[in-house]
Amino acid sequence: MMTTATNEHRNSPGARETVPVYFDDLDSYGMVHHGRYAVLFERAMIAYWAARDVPLGGTGSPAGERVVHVVRGLELIYEVPITRMGEIRVHFCIEHVGRTSYRYGFRLLSADGSTVHATGRRTQVNLDPATLRPAPLSAQLLRLAEPIMSEEARASLSARVASV
After folding, report:
1. pLDDT, tens digit, for every residue of 87-125?
2. What is the longest distance spanned by two Cα atoms in the chain?
3. For the sheet containing 68-78, what is the strand order?
4. Does a structural domain hold residue 65?
5. DSSP of 64-95
């Protein structure tokens, strides 16, 4: 079980956001309820994209298209419970980019970054807004996501673009 963050993780690619843990995130034992860990990641991801003026919720994108990205899968591994309100850090990156989908990897950390509370992955699929069927990710959105892509994601994206 990995419970201590290392310098390797502190220097890894991706985004780091600080998010609040509220009273209503806690369960009757005074720990963050297991279902709220995904919400904590969501708060961090939304803060990251909102700070970059990327609209969420299907309202449009910087390229002018309507964006519908839905969650296809979510995996969480719990390490050490979060036992109080306050702030935590969330470190995340885009680990993989496919033609119509991408996968985030994330870690929920203590405020000082020394303890790993949970790790996870979330896969999202881009849907065509008219048909709600998977559709290719736009070049504009991929450019916006590049700063938080892992080296593996950038390499696979570059290889795919080069083969077209």
Report:
1. 999 999 999 999 999 999 999 999 999 999 999 999 999
2. 54
3. 15-21, 86-97, 101-109, 116-127, 68-78
4. yes
5. S---EEEEEEEEEEE-S---SSEEEEEEEEEE
Range of the domain at 102: 7-163
User: How many angstroms separate the CA atoms of 37 and 24, rounded?
Assistant: 12
111: in domain: yes
DSSP type of residue 156: H
* pLDDT (tens digit per residue) in 140-155: 889 999 999 999 999 8
Are 106 and 90 a contacting pair, CB within 8 Å? yes
* Chain-centroid distance, C-alpha 147: 13
Of 81, 93, 88, 103, nearest to 34 by C-alpha is 81
Start-to-end Cα distance in the chain: 42
Classify residue 2: in a domain, yes or no. Answer: no
Q: Is 99 exposed, middle or buried (0-12, 13-18, 19+ CB in 10 A)?
A: exposed
Across the chain, mean pLDDT equals: 88
Q: What's the distance, CA 33 to chain centroid?
A: 19
